[in-house]
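Please predict the structure of the following assembly.
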Amino acid sequence: MLADADATRRSLLEAAYEEIHRFGFQAASLNAILERTGVTKGALYHHFSSKLQLGYAVLDEHIAGELQRLWFEPLHQPGHPIDTLMEAIMHMGEHYQCEEITLGCPLNNLAQEMSAIDDGFRQRIDSIYKHWQESIETLLTRGQQEGSVSTTIDPADTAFFILASLEGCMSMAKNAQSHDELMRCGKALLSYLNSLRA
Amino acid sequence: MLADADATRRSLLEAAYEEIHRFGFQAASLNAILERTGVTKGALYHHFSSKLQLGYAVLDEHIAGELQRLWFEPLHQPGHPIDTLMEAIMHMGEHYQCEEITLGCPLNNLAQEMSAIDDGFRQRIDSIYKHWQESIETLLTRGQQEGSVSTTIDPADTAFFILASLEGCMSMAKNAQSHDELMRCGKALLSYLNSLRA
DNA sequence: CAAGATACATACTGGTCGGTATGCTCCATG
DNA sequence: CATGGAGCATACCGACCAGTATGTATCTTG
């Protein structure tokens, strides 16, 4: 039954994602994931050759996919680039509510924890960040060509900074465990974005 | 011999700091710390009642102390607030060289890893961040009073955003494992700071 | 000089971890 | 209808972990 096998795999990925999001990759317990899903260890190691490969799969499939839905797709809408950016950011702010905010950005969490000690994680995360940054850069460059974004800024540097600020805001909000702090940070970020208009 | 006892304690704190900085708190191995220092387990548990208490001590004494030297003291110099800020940031950028950059900001690392799962860590980190943010806020407020900083910005919100951006930049640079990326992010941050002048 | 406290050292424990060896059932295919 | 592989299930392994129990010098203090 191929369908059931896929369901098992997806169930493992989902549970692993949550476990990793909550405790980090290294502290994530395979036994806890198994207990949560009702899947046995034999099944897990049938689908993934190691804990590391499971972690990579969570990153490649679950996290990258969610980012696609939450960020890249909304960014491709037409309109004023700065407005589009602000909407995407506010949309993300609304998505990360309540409990989830205290767990932080899944991508940033993994970057912090794993990039220094495992190059497989690092490269995967780096390529996602690059993709993310370029999506902002493209938007800013388009804005400059259309005359809606100030030409005094460097699109690549600015895109990198916007992304860094975004992650920084979520990181601070995570530690403060407060949605207010996220909004506060977001407010300043939006104000900065406004200053980029032509 | 009280002097030797203090030396042992300091040696443990230093080694624990490095181990935690490299692997994170949870993955930090007490045995590795002991091996590195040549101290025995009996001695460690004489000075610290648990791994958690050792972690708190690293945060309270080592990390907070380093931040004091690297940040709070340079910030108390007179002069144009924005210039002071920029110098302090560039000074930090120079300090985090080579290998250290790939390990990230020790405070941010701990915040990301521990704030969601241990309130003792969270509260300690939160108070340090608050202190940090207030030191920037005070500077900005002084600048507004002196007429050197734009009065259209909210000092508290802006200070929070600057701090978040700073941490975000270091986080991105850590993952990219590149000092260039840190400088790139710093450039955009400095440009933002310049826009805050009156 | 006796006694208690300080500052360790050594050996060990129970528990959890990621990973593996083996065997089973089902099902598509020749 | 035999057979081999897919998709598991169960039991187990050695390594490592934080933490502890116990013993022992040394040093301070009455």
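Chain B has ten helices and no strands. Chain B touches chain A through 49 residues (CB under 8 Å).
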